[in-house]
């Protein structure tokens, strides 16, 4: 399994399970600063990053994404919370960590680039492309399997990133963090997908910003766009692990709870089962998560699709399917929960009767169009 | 700081920050099986346990509790999911891990024992005490600083445990997982505290089963009981990190969401600030958490009480107090959240409009009285 | 049936169905001014008051209370919205209307007095009693069957009212609008009941301010108090038709929704079935409603207790029991609702996802103690 | 004012306030049987119907609709709950009542016809038209001002009704109970409006089935359709007085709460203020309500648009604008509510923490397309 490339796997019809979100989970573990969201802990605290990689691997992830989010030189400089460590050092350390853990389980390593402040500030194609080129060069010094362009709100910038990264000769996956209504300039998902594939992306899809079922819907729109254009590409999805029914263009960043009170919106593992099935049914074969996805959420993807994949992930040794291990609980009413129907139909209470169930998102960039 | 014992610290009026919950967090990371809740991963996957210890230490914890929950021989045998590893092996490994990490930051190591199936099944004092003795002997072979008797629903069994553990000559802390109404036999908290102190406990309090503010209320009742009896003891609290307004005697085990859909009940870091202040104001000085407490919740205790303690924890290097680091966010409406009033007054939405805000607990053992 | 007095009926073990709330319902119909809550429309718009009486009668009410709430001279003067009509005129008109409708269906007429501003302002027994005497004299000029002392927050004032009204020789019922914690001076319900009965009340209980199940609980406490004191009296209840789980001493007046946004708290007819059964099981035999009780809520009492009473009310000709008449609906999913289990188990949605399910009551007079 | 016809008023740019819902309000008052929803009480209990007319008039309604809902011969026969009263008798009595009350306040009388079971069962234009003709002939024997075609789920049937009613020479208004998605055959609102106007309707719009803001949206789509077709007509709206955010084609009939647990969805008067303003801003000038609209909701329309109309309705003598009359309340926290901002911003709690905020509608006829 370990020796096959990402396209080989997808071409063969395999389900590829992605990993979960690093920045938000490492923020909760004490290694990432919210607001900055930069990955300097790959250098400062490699054991913490390594452990999270390992948990995702153990949960069933087939890909280790390098912990290099927002690791472009312009972003690091603007952010200002990393003074003595260079982007190149972080990229180097992050590649090492991803490789080390990937090799423990036959997983692939994907080097990731994300949107740059430079795009919004300068809108200068040459400058923006130079930033992507620099980070790509860092990756190409290391042993990585493919590249991921992710977390782009404007398809134009993502296209520029794909154009740069394709010069590496590596497979390129590209995911936007956009809503079904389209990107921040109003380009609809179908057209976004077409532009990305025409720029050279082998795999396209959606990540972050919105909840799983909304993201599945957006990927479906991308698929339709590709079909209409007579194009082919593999589909990928790595959504939020939060319920965001109110969100629109701006995504969860517009929610009043972002980023320090999102707890009550968190997905249960059973929500993830539904998501994994929906994504699979929509024809998506690269299925992972982003912010809010903890290791047990990734395991839920792997467990839902165990029949399709032919095996359970290592971490399932510590998990009874659909709550089966509750059968040995001492309380009879807990034992009664050791079955799929119970968890599939449960409507969990928040324990917060003074809180509403839906919020009003902030101004969300609709006027940017 | 590292060389002072737990009583020395408490006698000096210091705030001692406890660590958070291991079993539930390690379940989500893929190393504990829900239903069994046994700590065999101390042997199987020491790196995962070590990392969680480190995160709690980094978040400000002054005590590393050994990961030995439910690690009595009778429980391990009943549970049946650990065939080739003995309880003694787990206790040994867990002590090593706690010690190793504690030494990285001047923390103390506490060996923990919890309630036994034997008590409910046999109600035989000799048999139950023999089980505690065996686990204590495991601890005494290692370098531990004090002992914790925790997660007891019946004060009688906790008293037996204290009586055994006091023979070690070590300081003993004892926390019950009971409601303000009393233990499962109806013994009220004040009387429970008296019995525990008379049995030799140096520190008494509450852990698990109910939410922070409810647990503070129960500890207050314990304090009143001690004062009426003319007894003195230090007070300790390690509550759930979940909102459980509906709970009664049975605690969160009776909630329909236990254990796989508790996400929406999770505390935010701001809820923890309130809790830490309430606990401090109630005169409690050993303040930690149990199930649901992740590293960032422990950090919130340490940040709320930073003035009283005189320092911030290491993990605060990655956290702006009260959201201060959001000031550099690109979206103006997120920057507007970089202030205490915003987070203190936020009523977070669940994003789940088809779910209720309160549940009906299952039969909760009231009839056991 | 019509010729039997209230005590005759209650002594015989009959269930007496009370009427519902006039002021709040007539406010919605356009005849009462919220804030003032005075009953001048008995003179200004008798047809509206007559019609509401008739609807309660038709719904099964055995008693027509005169529409004389807050109709003491001091209250009318303070209120200031009635310039050209005297309290005596209103009392006269209200008695006529109640009598006219009561005679259409064998019901009894009860003349009602309620708490006075004078009590709080002067706390002068002579003055307060003079006010009750004046209103009583108005009633005694008319053909009324018994007297009701209702909506008193302080038992002391209610006792004064009972003492005055007993001089009439009529049967006197007395209901307080207090919580299980006691009246506004902290007198517990049991003691309140004892004082009222010792003052001469033949029937005691609770009305308004809190939801049905809370009021049932308070009446139970009154009953216990009477039993302990070796006293006997009939029990009466006329609670709010709103859900008020957050309320304490101050009752629904303290809720942020009072008085113009209480809609979402309204009881369904099925909630009333539960209430009527609970009240009956608690030994209460005079069962009606107050603010929020519309005619169909009174019908629900009469339908729940139809077997005990031996007959259905006239308005049941327009109501299939437990939704039976839905059987002829054109939509199959509506037909499926023509059964008791459906309505008993329904948890109705608010359709308001941005609203909480519980509010924070305002300062509620706890400090008045 | 009383002598001007409906078109004269609308042509002059006046705001015409409609009345509220009769069947659901009279069900609660004990005079209509849910499931059947037929108007026989116009004959059986004229005083109850007269009183409700009067309350709407007093609240500001400029039109009294005859209480003749579902009063076609085929519907009455199918319904089966009216054995001894003919449809002609009901129509006659209902016209008398509407006329009598309208004359008390210069209002107009509108004779209303609604959808027939015959349409769905036979789909025979001749038969269906004969039914409308019969009811129209009943109306033409009486003194009515104009005709209303309302509560039609299929525009085709509504067109047939308009075609029949236009033969009377009277002004005809036509409102469908459809969603923004279109009628039950999938005809979009814009096209529905065009067909109705081409059939002869002078006024078109929406009534019932969905909440006010959704209905405003649907009327806007009708307006756009008319503009595109170069047609002109006055716009009318009489929506539900309930929050129905989940509804789709089937409307509130599909909600689990229909028809006996809709209380928690009820609009406050402040919700109605918003609705009236939105409707006015959308260019709608005939603004009323349907099921769930009680007299105080109609008053809220008249109060919101008092400046535009130049006067307040009679019932405003018993209402302080925006809660102004609370200024004289005895509790200071209630006095603090005597202002517009308080009520406009209040998010009312349901008091029902075990209930969700949104429901799942039943199969709603989408497959009928």
Automatic annotation (TrEMBL), chains A, B, C, D:
<dbReference type="InterPro" id="IPR036589">
    <property type="entry name" value="HCY_dom_sf"/>
</dbReference>
<dbReference type="InterPro" id="IPR017226">
    <property type="entry name" value="BHMT-like"/>
</dbReference>
<keyword id="KW-0489">Methyltransferase</keyword>
<dbReference type="GO" id="GO:0008270">
    <property type="term" value="F:zinc ion binding"/>
</dbReference>
<feature type="domain" description="Hcy-binding">
    <location>
        <begin position="4"/>
        <end position="305"/>
    </location>
</feature>
<dbReference type="GO" id="GO:0032259">
    <property type="term" value="P:methylation"/>
</dbReference>
<keyword id="KW-0479">Metal-binding</keyword>
<comment type="pathway">
    <text>Amino-acid biosynthesis; L-methionine biosynthesis via de novo pathway; L-methionine from L-homocysteine (BhmT route): step 1/1.</text>
</comment>
<dbReference type="GO" id="GO:0071267">
    <property type="term" value="P:L-methionine salvage"/>
</dbReference>
<keyword id="KW-0862">Zinc</keyword>
<comment type="subunit">
    <text>Homotetramer.</text>
</comment>
<dbReference type="Pfam" id="PF02574">
    <property type="entry name" value="S-methyl_trans"/>
</dbReference>
<dbReference type="InterPro" id="IPR051524">
    <property type="entry name" value="BHMT"/>
</dbReference>
<feature type="binding site">
    <location>
        <position position="290"/>
    </location>
    <ligand>
        <name>Zn(2+)</name>
    </ligand>
</feature>
<dbReference type="InterPro" id="IPR003726">
    <property type="entry name" value="HCY_dom"/>
</dbReference>
<dbReference type="GO" id="GO:0047150">
    <property type="term" value="F:betaine-homocysteine S-methyltransferase activity"/>
</dbReference>
<comment type="function">
    <text>Involved in the regulation of homocysteine metabolism.</text>
</comment>
<keyword id="KW-0808">Transferase</keyword>
<feature type="binding site">
    <location>
        <position position="291"/>
    </location>
    <ligand>
        <name>Zn(2+)</name>
    </ligand>
</feature>
<feature type="binding site">
    <location>
        <position position="208"/>
    </location>
    <ligand>
        <name>Zn(2+)</name>
    </ligand>
</feature>
<dbReference type="GO" id="GO:0005829">
    <property type="term" value="C:cytosol"/>
</dbReference>
<protein>
    <recommendedName>
        <fullName>Hcy-binding domain-containing protein</fullName>
    </recommendedName>
</protein>
